[in-house]
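YM 10:42: Intercompartmental signaling factor BofC sequence, as discussed on the call
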Amino acid sequence: MKVFQVIKKQKGHTLLIIFLLLLVSGVSVLFNQAFSSAERGLAESDLGEAFEVSGPATMDVTLQYMYLDGEVIEEKTKETIWSMEDFWAQYEDWNLLRQSEDGIVFQKEIDDISPALKMNGYFGITEDGVLSIFEGVPQDEQVIQSFFQVDTKKLKSKQHSELVNGIPIGDKHHYEEVLEAFAEYKESEF
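YM 10:58: structure's back
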């Protein structure tokens, strides 16, 4: 009989322990379900936002091409920007000069003389003896750029005559060649 009483006592405790375990398990399951559904709802709302497209942005872009002869040519465009990463990659070899709400200005140094100088540029000498580049022949007196004072007394007569009449520039190589040739007659910089 004592054995049955011990078993009855233990059975009561066992039932209590089983009841408590079931209660804790039930609460745990409910908590996990609530947490999982909240997480799922958050993930679904994140996905909705991730695929939301606001449309492309447009921006005024100014491109400045800066040539060896000092000429700056500007090109203005209106860019449609779908991705800022792609936009910056497109201009990675340009220098950013300005950026504002009105637009953005990039500059690129071109290792060449300007197209206008190639077509209509002449080296010449001013009345004051300054080696200059002219738009057209020097007699038209339209100076584009001045370099240095030339010691005209040291020039050979042919060189002086060429400068007075104008030496067509044509290309970068000839531009550099003429500057180098007359540099030995330089008196002072401008």
